[in-house]
Design brief:
The complex is a heterodimer of chains A (490) and B (443). Chain A has 490 residues and is an alpha+beta fold. Chain A has 5 domains: 91 residues, 2-Layer Sandwich (Uridine Diphospho-n-acetylenolpyruvylglucosamine Reductase, domain 2), CATH 3.30.43; 118 residues, Uridine Diphospho-n-acetylenolpyruvylglucosamine Reductase, domain 3; 107 residues, Alpha-Beta Plaits; 75 residues, 2-Layer Sandwich (Alpha-Beta Plaits); 47 residues. Helix content of chain A is 34%, strand content 20%. A 7-stranded antiparallel beta sheet of chain A has the order 16-13-15-14-19-21-17, with helices on both faces. Chain A has a 5-stranded antiparallel beta sheet with strand order 6-7-11-9-10. Chain A has a 4-stranded mixed beta sheet with strand order 1-3-5-4. In chain A, helix 9 packs across helix 12 and helix 13 runs antiparallel to helix 14. Chain A is globular. An 8-stranded antiparallel beta sheet of chain B has the order 15-12-14-13-17-18-16-19, with helices on both faces. Chain B starts with a helix and ends in a 15-residue tail after the last helix. The longest helix of chain B is centred in the C-terminal third of the chain and has 17 residues. Chain B is built from 16 helices and 19 strands. By secondary structure, chain B is an alpha+beta fold. Classes of the chains: A alpha+beta (490), B alpha+beta (443). The interface between A and B is large, with 86 and 86 residues. The structure holds flavin-adenine dinucleotide (2 copies). The site of one flavin-adenine dinucleotide (FAD) has 36 residues of chain A, from strand 4, helix 5 and strand 11. One flavin-adenine dinucleotide binds next to strand 4, helix 5 and strand 11 of chain A.
C-alpha cells in the first residue's frame, strides 16, 4: 500500500465525517496508537483511520469507500483478541463496532436474541438473566469482548465443553459483504436452504465481511449446578481424572485444569484457598436438572479419587462456588503480578494425550530457560500454556516465540490443532502448514475469494505469509506488516 | 455396452467396479438412467474418476445409500454415478477422546453398532440408518428427533476430507473437538448435496450412550393443545432430548389408528435413571394443564419402534403418499401452520400428515393426493410454500413425482446471499460437474 497523501487523507476524513458525524473518525497518530494492538501486544500496526459507525448502512458506506480507494479495512470489536486478528496489517481503515452495542430483540418463546456486534458478551446474559435465560459461550474475557469478535473467532470458554462454541449458538447474521452489499446469512429459522454461509462466516476472522446483526440462541438457566475442586500431587493424575470422568459417561459443563505455578501465583495475589503445594487442580462443574445431580457429583468425585486426588472439595453454596472459580478466572491477573509479561498460547490436543503433551510443554519451556503456567480447558484438550517473560531482557521475546512454536509443533504431532479458540490472525499464519497441506490451504483461499475477491477485507491474516499467498493465487505483496515502519515484531 | 467413458473408468477402478447399461437400473434418478455407475476403492481413484469426468464434461452424482437421491431438482443430464460403497470402514475410534473418524460410505447403522460396543454413539438419528451413509447424511444434512438437544451434523462434524472437482484432496477442521484453525470447511460440506466436493472421510464428536432413554407419548384431542404442550415443555426446566409434535393423520404411522383432529407430543428423555424418571413424571404433571388425554412411557424396542415409525411417517401414514416438504419456521408457529396447511389440503379434497420437531420449528409435511393430477398437487404444495414463506419460513419440496417437480420449484426463490453461494460453487467446481443444476438457485 503506498501511503496516502496528506491531501487525500484530509478529503477522505471529511467524507467519512459527513457520513458518520463529528467525533466518529480518528486520524491523529496519537489517537490511532490506541488501536495499534489487540490483546497480543507482540504485534502492532497503525491504521490510517479508525471509524465508529452506528448502523449497517454506515458500515456498508465505509466498506464501499474503502473499495473505491483500494484501502484495506478491518472490523474491530473490543480488541481483546489474542492473535492480532483486528490489526490493520496493511494500514487503511479500522472499523470499530463499539457504538453498535444494542440488544435489538429478545424472543423468549423462541429462545433467541438479535443483537448488534459491539454488544459485550456478558451483557447479553445480563439482559436476559432476569427472565431466567443466558447466553452459553463464555470466553474468560466475557466482561469485555464483543459478540462480533466472538463470531469472527468462533470463541469458546470453560462451559463450551458441554454447550459447544460460538458457532453452535449462531442462527443467522446480517453482514456487510466485502463489496458493501448488506445481506442476511441464515436467519431465525433452522436449516436455511443452500450452503451454510452462517457456519462458514463464523470463525472466518473478519475476512468475509463485517457482521452488523447477529441472531443467537439463548438458553434457560440450569436448575442446579455443582462445582468440585479436585487437588492432585501429580499433573498426570489430574489428566487421567479428565479421561476417567469421560469414561464414566459424564460430560460435565466445564473441566478446567490449573497447574502449580498458576495456583501459587493466584494464591499470592488473591488467596482463593487452593493448596499451594498441589501439582494441579481440576475445577469441574456439572449443571442441569436438580434430579440426579448428586449422583453425577458422586461419580465425578469417585473418578477423581480413583485417579489419585488427595483432596476433593464440593462447593456448598454459591459463595463457595464463586471462590473456586475466582482462582481460575484470576489466573491472568495473577501472572501479571509475578511477571512483567506473558504470552498466552492456544493449542488443542486429543484429551487422551494430555499427560504426554503437558510434560513436553514443561520441558520445552524449561529448555528455553523460561517459566510456564498452564490454566486451560482440559475437558476438550484446549491447552493454554502461558509463557512468562521479561520483554526488557534482550532476546527473551524471541525465545518465548520460539518456545511457543515448538509447543504448536507438539500439538500438531499428536493430531491436534494450532488454535482452539484464539484464531490464527497474524500470529499463527506461518504455522498453518503444520496442520494443513497446500491443497487444504488452496481450498480455503478459494472460499475466501468467493467472499472477498479483492482481498481488501482484513488482509494479511490466516494464510501463510510469503509462500502461501503466492500459492493461493493472491497478489503476493511484500510483507506489509514487517515493512515501512507500519508494524514491527517485538 | 462399453463407451469410451466406461472404458477409461474401468482402467482406474477395475472393470468389476463399473456398471453400464441395464446394470445401472438401481441407480436411476428421477426416471433418468446414468451412463454408468462407478465404485472407486480409494480417494485417489475418486480424484482420477473426477478428472475423467471433467475432461469429458460428464456430470457426476455422488451416491451413498441412495435413500435421498431424489432430493433436489431433477438432473438435466444424468452423467455418472460415483458410488461410495467401497469406502465403508471405521478408521479410528478413541473412546477417551469422544471422537471417531469414518469413511463416507459406511452406513450409519454399521457405524453406531461399532461405537456402541464401546458405550458411545453419534448423537444423530435420521431415518433409514440401515442404508443411509455418513457421507449422504452429511451432504443432505439429514437429522432426526434428537437434534432437539444434540444438534445436527453441523454441530457434530469436526473434520472432513473431500475430493474437489479438480481432483484436489482437501481436509478441513481436524480430529480434535475444539479447533478454529482456518476456515470451517466442515460447515460448507454439510448440506451441500454433493455440489462442492465428494466427501470421503469425516471425523465426528461422539457422546457416551445414556444409562437410560425413554419416550413419553402424550395424547391430546387437538393439535392446538399439543402445540401448547410443546411450548409448555420448552418454557419449563425439562431438558428433553426430543420434542416432536405429530398431527392426527401422522399418528396413523405410529399406531395405525390416527384420527383427524387428534395429536400427540413425543418427548424423548435420556440420561441417568434419576433424571429420566423425574423428567417422565414432570412431563405428566406439566401437561395435565394442557388438556392431556393420555400418556404412555416407552422404553427398549417399543421406544425404538415408535421413533422409527415417526421417522418413516411419510411412507407409513398413507399407502401411497404423493409428495413431501420440509419447512423451517419459528417454534411458536408450528401448530398454527400445520393447522392452516391441513385446511389448505382438505379444501382441495386431499389428505395431509405432519410431524414437527416442535422445539426447533422443523416440519415434515406429507401430501396424500391419490387420484389428484400433478397440477393439483403442485398447486397445493405452492400454497403451502406461500403460507410458510409468508410466515418468514422456508419450504423445500423433499420429494414429489417428476410431473409435479416440473410444475413447482424444489427450492425457495434464492435470496441475495445466493450470489456468494454461486461464487463458492464457481471457485470449487468451476466446470460444474458435481450434481449440476440440482441445488438452490440452479447451482
Ligand atoms: C484475558 C483474556 C481471556 C480470554 N479468554 C478467552 C477464552 O476463554 N476463549 C476465547 O475463545 N477467547 C478468549 N480470549 C480472546 C478474545 O477475547 C476473543 O477472541 C474475543 O472473541 C475477541 O473479541 P473482541 O471483541 O475483543 O474482538 P477483536 O479482538 O476486536 O477482534 C477479533 C477478530 O474479530 C473480528 N471482528 C470483530 N468484530 C467483527 C464483526 N462485527 N464482524 C466481523 N469480524 C469482526 C476482527 O476483525 C478480528 O479478526 C481472551 C482474551 C483475553 C485478553
Ligand atoms: C422416505 C425418506 C424419509 C426421509 N426423512 C428425512 C427426515 O425426516 N429428515 C431428514 O433430515 N432427512 C430425511 N430423509 C433424507 C435421508 O435421510 C438422507 O437423504 C439420507 O440420510 C442420505 O443418505 P444416503 O447415504 O442414502 O445418501 P444418498 O441418497 O446416496 O445421497 C443424498 C445426497 O447426498 C449426496 N452424497 C451422497 N454421498 C455423498 C458423498 N460421499 N459426498 C458428497 N455428496 C454425497 C448425493 O449426491 C445426494 O445429493 C429422508 C429420506 C427418505 C427416503
Amino acid at each position: 500500500m503506498p501511503a496516502l497523501t496528506e491531501a487525500r487523507k484530509k478529503s477522505l476524513r471529511r467524507e467519512m465525517e459527513a457520513l458518520l458525524g463529528p467525533g466518529a473518525v480518528l486520524s491523529d497518530p496519537d489517537e490511532l496508537m490506541v488501536y495499534e494492538s489487540d490483546g497480543l501486544t507482540l504485534f502492532r500496526a497503525l491504521a490510517d483511520f479508525v471509524v465508529f459507525p452506528l448502523t449497517a448502512e454506515h458500515v456498508a458506506a465505509l466498506v464501499r469507500l474503502a473499495q473505491r480507494e483500494g484501502l484495506p479495512f478491518v472490523a474491530r470489536g473490543a480488541g481483546t483478541g489474542l492473535s492480532g486478528g483486528c490489526l490493520p496489517a496493511e494500514g487503511g481503515l479500522v472499523i470499530s463496532l463499539m457504538r453498535m452495542n444494542r440488544v435489538l430483540e429478545v424472543d423468549y418463546d423462541n429462545q433467541l436474541a438479535v443483537v448488534e456486534p459491539g454488544l459485550v458478551n456478558l451483557h447479553l446474559s445480563w439482559a436476559v438473566g432476569a427472565r431466567g435465560f443466558y447466553y452459553a459461550p463464555d470466553p474468560s474475557s466475557q466482561q469485555a469482548c464483543t459478540i462480533g469478535g466472538n463470531i469472527a473467532n468462533n470463541s469458546g470458554g470453560p462451559h463450551t465443553l458441554k454447550y459447544g462454541v460460538t458457532t453452535n449458538h449462531v442462527l443467522g447474521l446480517e453482514v456487510v459483504l466485502p463489496d458493501g452489499e448488506i445481506v442476511w446469512l441464515g436467519g431465525k429459522t433452522r436449516d436455511p436452504q443452500g450452503y451454510d454461509l452462517t457456519g462458514i462466516f463464523v470463525g472466518s476472522e473478519g475476512t468475509f465481511g463485517i457482521a452488523t446483526k447477529i441472531v443467537l440462541r439463548i438458553l434457560r438457566q440450569p436448575q442446579a449446578v455443582r462445582t468440585v475442586l479436585a487437588v492432585f500431587n501429580e499433573i498426570d493424575q489430574a489428566s487421567e481424572a479428565v479421561s476417567a470422568i469421560i469414561a464414566r459417561g459424564l460430560i460435565p459443563a466445564a473441566m478446567e485444569m490449573i497447574d502449580q505455578l498458576t495456583i501459587q501465583a493466584v494464591e499470592d495475589a488473591f488467596g482463593c484457598g487452593y493448596p499451594r503445594d498441589a501439582a494441579a487442580a481440576l475445577l469441574i462443574e456439572m449443571d442441569g436438572l436438580a434430579a440426579g445431580m448428586d449422583e453425577q457429583a458422586a461419580r465425578v468425585i469417585a473418578a477423581c479419587r480413583e485417579t489419585g486426588a488427595r483432596e476433593v472439595r464440593l462447593a456448598r453454596d454459591e459463595a463457595e462456588r464463586q471462590l473456586l472459580w475466582k482462582g481460575r478466572k484470576s489466573a491472568f491477573g495473577a501472572y501479571g503480578r509475578i511477571s512483567p509479561a506473558y504470552l498466552v498460547m492456544d493449542g488443542v490436543i486429543p484429551r487422551t494425550r494430555l499427560p504426554y503433551v503437558l510434560r513436553r510443554v514443561n520441558e520445552i519451556v524449561a529448555g528455553y530457560g523460561l517459566r510456564v503456567g498452564n490454566v486451560f480447558h482440559a475437558g476438550d484438550g484446549n491447552l493454554h500454556p502461558n509463557i512468562l517473560y521479561d520483554p526488557r531482557k534482550p532476546g527473551e521475546e524471541q525465545r518465548v516465540v520460539a518456545a511457543g512454536g515448538e509447543i504448536l509443533k507438539v500439538c500438531a504431532e499428536v493430531g491436534g490443532s494450532i488454535s482452539g479458540e484464539h484464531g490464527i490472525g497474524l500470529e499463527k499464519r506461518d504455522y498453518m502448514p503444520l496442520i494443513f497441506s497446500e491443497a487444504d490451504l488452496g481450498c480455503m483461499a478459494r472460499v475466501k475469494r468467493a467472499f472477498n475477491p479483492t482481498g481488501l477485507c482484513n488482509p494479511g491474516k490466516i494464510f501463510p505469509s510469503r509462500k502461501g499467498c503466492a500459492e493461493a493465487g493472491f497478489a503476493s505483496r511484500p510483507h506489509p506488516i514487517e515493512e515501512a515502519g507500519l508494524a514491527q515484531r517485538f | 455396452m462399453h463407451s469410451p467413458l466406461s472404458r477409461r473408468l474401468a482402467e482406474i477402478v477395475g472393470g468389476a467396479h463399473v456398471l453400464t447399461g441395464a446394470e445401472c437400473a438401481p441407480y436411476v434418478v428421477e426416471g433418468r438412467t446414468p451412463e454408468c455407475a462407478v465404485f472407486p476403492g480409494s480417494r485417489e481413484d475418486i480424484a482420477a474418476v473426477l478428472g475423467v469426468a471433467a475432461d469429458s464434461g460428464t456430470p457426476v452424482m455422488p451416491w451413498g445409500g441412495g435413500t435421498g437421491m431424489a432430493l433436489g431438482s431433477p438432473p438435466a443430464h444424468p452423467g455418472l454415478v460415483l458410488g461410495l460403497r467401497r469406502l465403508g470402514r471405521l478408521l479410528e475410534h478413541e473412546p477417551g477422546d469422544l471422537t471417531a473418524t469414518v469413511e463416507a460410505g459406511m452406513t450409519l447403522e454399521a457405524f453406531q453398532a461399532e461405537l456402541s460396543r464401546r458405550g458411545q454413539w453419534l448423537s444423530l438419528d435420521p431415518p433409514q440408518a440401515a442404508r443411509a451413509t455418513l457421507g449422504g447424511i452429511l451432504a443432505s444434512n439429514a437429522s432426526g428427533p434428537r437434534r432437539h438437544l444434540y444438534g445436527t451434523a453441523r454441530d457434530l462434524l469436526i473434520g472432513i476430507t473431500m475430493v474437489l472437482a479438480d481432483g484436489a484432496i482437501v481436509r478441513g477442521g481436524g480430529k480434535v473437538v475444539k479447533n478454529v484453525a482456518g476456515y470451517d470447511l466442515p460447515k460448507l460440506a454439510v448440506g451441500s448435496f454433493g455440489t462442492l466436493g465428494v466427501i470421503v472421510e469425516a471425523t465426528v464428536k461422539l457422546r457416551p450412550r445414556p444409562d437410560c432413554d425413554r419416550l413419553v407419548v402424550a395424547r391430546f384431542s387437538t393439535l392446538a393443545e399439543a402445540g401448547q404442550a410443546a411450548r409448555a415443555v420448552m418454557a419449563s426446566d425439562l431438558i428433553p432430548s426430543a420434542l416432536d409434535v405429530v398431527d392426527g393423520e401422522g399418528l396413523r404411522a405410529l399406531d395405525g389408528e390416527g384420527a383427524p383432529g387428534g395429536a400427540a407430543l413425543l418427548v424423548g428423555v435420556d440420561g441417568i435413571a434419576e433424571q429420566v424418571e423425574w423428567q417422565c413424571e414432570e412431563v405428566g404433571r406439566l401437561l395435565k394443564d394442557c388438556g392431556l388425554a393420555g400418556v404412555r412411557v416407552l422404553d427398549g424396542t417399543e421406544r425404538d419402534e415408535a421413533w422409527r415409525a415417526v421417522g418413516e411417517m411419510p411412507q407409513r401414514a398413507f399407502t401411497d403418499a404423493t409428495a413431501g416438504m420440509k419447512w423451517g419456521v419459528l417454534p411458536t408457529q408450528v401448530a398454527e401452520l400445520i393447522a392452516r396447511a391441513g385446511a389448505v389440503a382438505s379444501q382441495r379434497g386431499l389428505r395431509a400428515a405432519f410431524v414437527a420437531h416442535a422445539g426447533l420449528g422443523i416440519i415434515s409435511a406429507v401430501l396424500d393426493a391419490a387420484g389428484a393430477d400433478a397440477e393439483q398437487v403442485a398447486c397445493t404444495l405452492g400454497e403451502w410454500r406461500a403460507l410458510v414463506n409468508g410466515s418468514g419460513g422456508h419450504a423445500l419440496v423433499e420429494w414429489a413425482p417428476l410431473a409435479v417437480k416440473e410444475r413447482i420449484a424444489v427450492w425457495d426463490t434464492p435470496g441475495p446471499d445466493s450470489r456468494i453461494m454461486r461464487q463458492l460453487k464457481a471457485e470449487l467446481d468451476p466446470r460444474g460437474i458435481l450434481n449440476p443444476g440440482r441445488f438452490l438457485g440452479g447451482i
